[in-house]
């Protein structure tokens, strides 16, 4: 089976979870919607092109290997916004701040990020579809829109290095070796504090990655199957997870 495999690394990443109030949490690894958004940006698909977005979402399966979830960082900040006034429409930030000081309100919020996280992504064609993975690989090398790790404030810090490989094992695809981010794997280990445990997440057949004697496959339910990006509609899906100790 053919897989498109690439690596994600950046000083900061934010993989959105369900947000309540002013809190914006992050998952430890990129979900399916985050990867689909990255692929769509690389291909130049706009948010209002629902047919193209749906076609991409239905055509691929996504798997993730977490080398390191990174360190959690919480950004606590404030922002000023004017009181609602139906007679005035603000078209830019300068206009919002031009109202009288007494009409400005302070909004408190916190946003979570993962610092120095590393993930390997494997993309495959969904059953019944024949996605052109070479087209996706070319788009990742020369993306139409800027790529980022969950938020626009989280740019990539290393080349994606997309590669097509043929293998009958999803785990073999996710275990593909990439060049060291520093001078050697030992320096990567020290700098990124890479744990001995590696986590695998995938959709589809639960038996695609067989558990070892001391590990168990769990099935999780995540609400990150995109429905309509313009209306921020998402549905749930099953995802499988296994933790394996490095040899």
TrEMBL record:
<dbReference type="InterPro" id="IPR021124">
    <property type="entry name" value="CRISPR-assoc_prot_Cas5"/>
</dbReference>
<dbReference type="GO" id="GO:0051607">
    <property type="term" value="P:defense response to virus"/>
</dbReference>
<dbReference type="Pfam" id="PF09704">
    <property type="entry name" value="Cas_Cas5d"/>
</dbReference>
<dbReference type="GO" id="GO:0043571">
    <property type="term" value="P:maintenance of CRISPR repeat elements"/>
</dbReference>
<keyword id="KW-0051">Antiviral defense</keyword>
<protein>
    <recommendedName>
        <fullName>Type I-E CRISPR-associated protein Cas5/CasD</fullName>
    </recommendedName>
</protein>
<dbReference type="InterPro" id="IPR013422">
    <property type="entry name" value="CRISPR-assoc_prot_Cas5_N"/>
</dbReference>
<dbReference type="GO" id="GO:0003723">
    <property type="term" value="F:RNA binding"/>
</dbReference>
<dbReference type="InterPro" id="IPR010147">
    <property type="entry name" value="CRISPR-assoc_prot_CasD"/>
</dbReference>
